[in-house]
TrEMBL record:
Protein family according to the UniProt entry: Belongs to the MoaC family.
Catalytic residues in the record: 128
Name of the protein this chain belongs to: Cyclic pyranopterin monophosphate synthase
Its EC number(s): 4.6.1.17
Pathway(s): Cofactor biosynthesis; molybdopterin biosynthesis
UniProt keyword annotation of tRNA processing present: no
UniProt keyword terms in alphabetical order: Lyase, Molybdenum cofactor biosynthesis
Assembly notes: Homohexamer; trimer of dimers.
Length: 158
């Protein structure tokens, strides 16, 4: 049985060799929040930002980031994602934008890092576009919500 590890025989970091792993359908969902002042949330949701549609730009940034995860995170495998969906939802009760990213593929390794990267970059894009009007924004709770497929099976946050 092959042992999958990020360490080679010398104890040095390496990309995990997934040659022996079978292909399977894999899905990962991650989420996070950008908390902000009520006026900032209103500006975003009413399309009043001078820089344009903040949520549309953040959505595209998240999708692009998921596709480039292997260039950003050392030792991640370059993957042929079959689907990336980034959803942004205003949460007026908490003065936040909730971000959710779902990444899918059929392959030999999971897509958790791609989903987490999509959420992270979407959140950073919101921050970047709105920092001039609200430096108090907080990016928080970026986390994996669930994953399916692969050798380790399915997992869901409780």
């Amino acid at each position: 049985m092959t042992h999958f590890t990020h360490l080679n025989e010398k104890g040095e970091a390496q990309m995990v060799d997934v040659t022996e792993k079978g292909h399977s359908s894999r899905v990962a969902i991650a989420s996070g929040y950008v908390e902000m002042q009520p006026e900032t949330l209103r500006m975003i949701t009413h399309g009043e930002h001078k820089k344009g549609d903040v949520l549309a730009v953040a959505r595209i940034a998240g999708i692009q980031a998921a596709k480039k995860t292997s260039e950003l995170i050392p030792l991640c495998h370059p993957l042929m994602l079959t689907s990336v969906n980034v959803e942004l939802e205003a949460d007026g009760q908490n003065n936040a934008i909730r971000i959710s990213a779902t990444c899918k593929l059929s392959g030999q390794t999971g897509v958790e890092m791609e989903a987490l990267t999509a959420v992270s970059v979407a959140a950073l894009t919101i921050y970047d576009m709105c920092k001039a009007v609200d430096k108090n924004m907080v990016i928080s709770a970026i986390q994996l919500e669930q994953k399916t497929g692969g050798k380790s099976g399915d997992w869901r946050r409780e």
